[in-house]
Amino acid sequence: MAVVVCLVSSVALLTGSSPESTMTRPFRVIQMNLCDSGMAGCYTGRSVAAAAAVIRNEAPDLVTLNEVCQQDVSALDRAMAARYPGSAVVSAFTAAGDRRTGGAYHCLNGQPYGIGLVARLANRDGRHTMYSGLYPAQDTRDPEERAWLCVYAPADFYACTTHLADTSASVALTQCSYLLRTAIPTIRDRGGYEPTVLGGDLNLRYRGSPDVRSCVPSGYLRDDDGGVQQIVATAEFVLSSRRSIGMDGTTDHPGLLVALTIPRTG
Predict the structure, then answer these.
(1) Residue 49 belongs to a domain with what CATH number?
(2) Closest CA to 26 of 243, 248, 253
(3) Residue closest to 186 by CA, chosen among 251, 259, 133
(4) How confident is the model over 99-118, as a mean pLDDT?
(5) Distance of alpha carbon 217 from alpha carbon 193, whole angstroms
(6) Is 12 part of a structural domain of the chain?
(7) How far apart are CA 40 and CA 44, in angstroms?
């Protein structure tokens, strides 16, 4: 498996008390597709500002992002850090591949284009490891080569995102299976097991053809926005609430907010 591993010690902390562990309270996850490449018909140039407002209003622990430029993720990292002063907030980005050049796919503004995430960590030193890669299976008719991205926060969680092929449902299904059944288990073998959450635009639907459930391991939690945006989590989680978030016409997808909990035992 071709995987890029980046060990990050990213500490941008202000004074304050240690944050409560993310696993002892509802873990709020928002998935957003911001359509910010500048090339698609859904581009408005306003979706990043709308996403920052969602972060301020909804106070998520994890935001997974699709169809973003690299600096979009930096802007939303700042929004999350402002929402949680005194906490360790980290972000990660990986570019889609460009079959035509052999390099990164780019937004119209020249920045790398791809997927990202922003997360609040329980550990105060902000230690995390980033894993990413391009899928072995791609639709060769599409110049954009799809990627996946995960961040491992020791003694906390794995958080992942992806944007699967939109030109072939069968390729999207193969990519989904690779991520959930090969890539994520492999990185967990390296770092050790922790609860895992994936948010992304999978371009697969519940009861679709093919059905997104066919690539999700047995026992995992899964929810969606009624369309192609999905959140998948390992079996210790239960879903306490879900809600669609309007993006005021700034992108062609709603935001999807889910609150996850791990029931206490003993």
Answers:
(1) 3.60.10.10
(2) 243
(3) 133
(4) 98
(5) 16
(6) no
(7) 9
Q: Please report, as a single letter, which amino acid is at residue 44.
A: T
Distance CA 185, CA 234 (A): 11
Coil/strand/helix, residue 210: coil
E strands of the chain, at which residues? 4-9, 27-33, 62-69, 88-95, 97-98, 113-121, 127-134, 144-145, 147-153, 157-163, 196-201, 221-224, 229-233, 238-245, 255-261
- 229-248 confidence digits (pLDDT tens): 999 999 999 999 999 999 99
Strand 144-145 relative to strand 27-33: parallel, antiparallel, unpaired?
A: unpaired
Phi, psi of 196 (to 5 degrees): -130, 135
Is 54 a domain residue?
yes
Host domain of residue 223: 19-261
Token readout for 19 is 């944050």
Q: How many domains does the chain have?
A: 1
Say how many residues make up the chain. Answer: 266
Phi and psi torsions of 77, nearest 5°: -60, -45
- Answer whether residue 8 is part of any domain: no
Burial class (CB in 10 A: 0-12, 13-18, 19+), 93: buried
Q: What's the rounded Cα separation, in Å, for the pair 24 and 179?
A: 27
Q: Is the Cβ–Cβ distance between 127 and 6 less than 8 Å?
A: no
Q: For residues 223 and 228, give the distance between their C-alpha atoms in angstroms, rounded to a whole number.
A: 10
Burial bucket for residue 169 (CB in 10 Å: 0-12, 13-18, 19+)? middle
At 31-64, the pLDDT tens digits run: 999 999 999 999 999 999 999 999 999 999 999 9
Residue 251, domain member (yes or no): yes
